[in-house]
Amino acid sequence: MIKYFFLIFCIPLILSSQSDLPIGSWTTHLPYNAGIQVTQSDEFVYYSTGFSILQINKNDYSFQKISRTEGLSGNQINCIYFHKATKTLVIAYSDGLIDLLTEHGVIAIPDIQIYNNVPINKTIRSITFEDDIHVFINADYGLSSLDLVSHRMSFTTFTDNLIINSTLSFEGKVYSGSNKGLYVFDPSTKNLIEDFNSWNLIGTPMGLDPNVNYPSLTVFNNQLFASDNTTVYQLNQNSFEIVFKESNFSVQFLTSEGPDLLIGLTCDNSCGNKISIIKKDETKTEFTGDCVSENLWTIQDPKGVLWMADHRWGYRRAISIKDPCQSIFVNGPFSNNLYEITPTSDGVFVASGGLDAKYTYVYRADGVLSYKNKQWDVMNGGNVPVFSQNDIRDILRVVEHPDGNKLYFASFGAGVIEYDKMTQVYTLFNASNTNGILGVAIGDETRVRISGLAFNKIDKSLWIADFLAGKALVSYSNDKVWRSYKLNEISTEVIDVKVDNNGYKWIIPRESSGVLVFDEQDPNNPNDDRSILLNNSNTNMVSNRVNTVEVDLEGDVWVGTDQGAIVFECGSSIFEGTCKGSRRKVDQDGIIAYLLETESVISIGIDGANRKWFGTRNGLYVQSSNGEDQVLSFNTKNSPLMGNVIYDVVPDQKTGDVWIGTEGGIQVYRSDAVAARNVFSSSIYAFPNPVNANYSGPIAITGLSRDARVKITDISGRLVYETIANGGQAIWDGKDYLGRKAASGIYLVFANSTRDLDASDGIVTQILITR
């Protein structure tokens, strides 16, 4: 089975002043600070980052990012190889899927991925040259040959429990290095290569240990070389001879793509990696130093330039071992780790920490990632002394002060970090400087585990979930007063807190007991606190396992559980005990069902049209403002989504960009909804405008009042189109009521607020169409 995709390198220019993305388009934000493997064509060097491909021009060092957004079929890249004869970059993914990237686009080869006869472990270890139209696929199940012209598998050899690391043809025979010995197949025997019983194990009589791992094979200077984990061998007539071995070093790779044979060496006692270089005249040199100290893979181009792959920031190259190392830097997130995404008044911030299944530390030190003015930056121990001096790790939340002048970070282990944007001063709050109000975790008295942050926009107080502290709810007032509150209905294992439009706190406990709503009323009077625990005993909730809470534009509170979502439209009556919540009913292929009742809702986002974006373990679902109608659904099969597990989804209501945190990384989808004002903006405009003859995409009218009624007429006043805005933006497809493309001319846009239907329509902007 072969699937064809057009590889998109150029994005149509349907740009607005709000977002650079066209409506309905995607972009991906992946880290480009590491190269796991590297290969080359005549013109380009290709790096695998593990999540995507970076293509670098050898001459001018310009680069192109290639991921699922640009047409790749998979996410987790295991290995890559460029086949020069067919000009094909072969990309193998962790699930056995293979992509062929050519100048014509991407061809997906799912044979190994979907073929039931292939064992469960379909991990592809490497891709190696076979002949002018074939490559060897070396895998945990055995060996396959892929025809790059017909896009079909020529043969597959199952090797029982042997893992095939590398394979090549040499002097009419096929050699495969496995995790238990080096094997050879001789086609002259007329046996079938698919029958592994026809292969012979090369053993001690030929100079090799038959019980060790052989990860690398290569042909250099018309000689066959093989390596085990410590030694490089050369085939000399009928036996293998040791040609390289160095104490305290392990062999990491062999490659002979350029003029020389490169032997990658890893120091066994952390003394730094290096490369041994053997020339055709058998002279040997060493490449050492910082440039290769963490090297994973290196290739040499025909000019002798070395291109290194490693986990460090930047992509390194060296004209020769005597020249200084040069780095090519590509902007992107510092890390692919994420826990929560927060759009703010001046950028987007990503909390990169995490928790394990038992809600304990994973010790991520990646810090806070920031995206401003189209550039990624990071705040962590590498550039912020407060982080390094206090060993700040596992940042779980980022919130912005309602005044926009400060940010607050939640560290699961260190406390609350305040960042003043004006002074650029960081302040760490913990038990020692809050008189113990920020409490240490019971049983872990050296750490303050902050799991949730939220602002009450009414009084600008910060509310804090203090996991495992004696009093697990803490507030920090706008006049810098700290207070703590004991929650009697739930345990101290509090994982998040949200504040609704009434100032009520919705608190999520770790245990499956529902969601607690808390109101301190007079903060100086501990005796008037009130709370209510909402669960399946007193509401319409089915599951007590609550994952997330979000407040929509109407002030209604949506609760995501392990069995769908429920909305509480209670306002100030939530404590009366009569508000049961509503499970929305939806039509699924003619069958009435409850909203997402079979899905675990992990995250909820609200866009500018008050639509609900539900992140689940099986993709992303977009529902109408009342939750009853499905607007969109995305998964890895019908979109560029990099993973079906949606950790966070946050629409930026100002721009229409929807930030999506997936198991595969950070992505952005440009929606058709932006935030609205109560009245029309003085800067209503349409984009694109003018609309040229070859454009057939959506035309957006933005700056409208919320859910405005929009009518579009031609210059004579004949109605062409009518719609309701999504939040503050309306979309016209450029067609009339009969589905025909609107003719050339000037079109008038009239709008009226749906909240003031007695008001007359007024012209708000004009659109010029040229056909």
TrEMBL record:
User: Could you tell me the superkingdom of the organism this chain comes from?
Assistant: Bacteria
Q: Which residues form the PorZ N-terminal beta-propeller domain?
A: 45-200
N-terminal signal peptide: 1-19
- Keywords, ordered alphabetically: Signal
Report the protein name in the record: PorZ N-terminal beta-propeller domain-containing protein
- The organism encoding this protein is Candidatus Defluviibacterium haderslevense
